[in-house]
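Thread title: Can someone regenerate the structure for this chain?

I was given the following input by a collaborator and told the matching structure tokens would be attached. They weren't. Posting the sequence so someone can regenerate them.
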Amino acid sequence: MTASDSPPSAAIVALADRVEGAASDSPRFLLGIAGSPGSGKTTLATAIVAELNARHPGTASAVPMDGFHLANATLDRLGRRDRKGAIDTFDGWGFLALLDRIRTETEHTVFAPGFRREVDEGVAGEIAVEPATRIVVVEGNYLLVDDGPWARVRGALDEVWFCAAPSAVRETRLVHRHTRHGRSLAVAMDWARGVDGANAALIEATRERAALVVSGETGAVVD
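Best answer:
Regenerated them for you:
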């Protein structure tokens, strides 16, 4: 599945229909899309939000968990830079607080952080959730983890889906991503199999907690 300017696939249209139906009685509906690194959750969230905004402009927004990566300087101080992306390299409590703000602060704009891979850092206040936004699609690795602040994330969202892709597909995507942003092929492969692989083991174990499993390749419902 790739994002483009072409018409949305039937699968994306069906998913947008499902979200609209679930959100019909809610002043602000928060959909979570969890998944392992490289599964396609960002592309999926972007496609769904684009379809929803094509139907009703300005009513949907995507917010990534990646904006809550700890800064590289902080990771250096904590000795965690060599496994950036692990669950303890995020500000889980800060992320949870943002979800609460998005839910309750509907009369003014709520600004959320984004993440820029080209500099490998979060960007404060990059994403605006406007008062007119009725549907917020939140995507990230650890939305279904039942530990620490993450155990409260599921309850802060109305529904959570799991974006699934075969491990070989995810690894190929990750190696491409890492090399595109400056890592050598050897380092990229080590990171994809080591750091990303360890994180995926934790994330894949949360799949059964999702309300829906969606293919990160086609957007079709898996189960």
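Helices lie at 10-23, 41-55, 72-78, 92-104, 153-156, 167-180, 185-193, 195-204.
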